[in-house]
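User: I'm preparing a small set of examples for a lab meeting where we compare how different chains pack in three dimensions. I only have the primary sequence for this one, and I'd like the structure in token form so I can line it up with the others. Please keep the answer compact; I'll paste it straight into my notes.
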Amino acid sequence: MKNIDWSPWLIRMSQGDKEAFRMVYEETRDHAYRLIYYLTSSKEDAPDIMSEVYIELLKSAGNYRPEQSFKAWFNGLIVRQVRNWNRKSWRLYRIVEKVKLMTDTSHDRASEAQFSAISDQLELYPILRKLPLKTREVIVLRYYQDCSLEEIAALLNIPLGTVKSRHHHALKQLRRYFEQIQGRKEQNDYVYREATK
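Assistant: Understood. Below is the structure token output for the 197-residue chain.
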């Protein structure tokens, strides 16, 4: 995302200027999509959340204060929309589960697990998805958006100590996941070496 003065564009956008919206969208869409992709638990939801982000951007453009960093403000807007989406998804999931229990309809969990395993071939994304949303937000903002811990605290509207705690906890979890993966790879390598002797 370019480091430009966003104020004139956001003012024009809040006044209904379609060209200003197009320019802001073109300049921010890659950044927004990457952040959404890493924060959401379902990559299929990313385009829908992206739409929600830009709808909210249209509504909130007049609230932007030029003295604050546009990137931090925009990241906050994205994080809030991902959280809103997750809350809506969770409510829908609970309703669907209740309906399933009422109708006593079961589905093939084995085929669902196989599909999930095939779709999670990327090494980093599945590991990030294992983190709870609150710690995943901190990791994505810190390492994918280069935010300082102080910026993350301001963006998420939580104390700096909480950010540091979540950051530390997330790194411990990630380290554990990587060690498990590395252990499996070494085991597979050992079996392969034994078989080729």
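A couple of notes for your slides: The radius of gyration is 21 Å. The chain has two domains: 1-106, 122-197.

User: Perfect, thanks.
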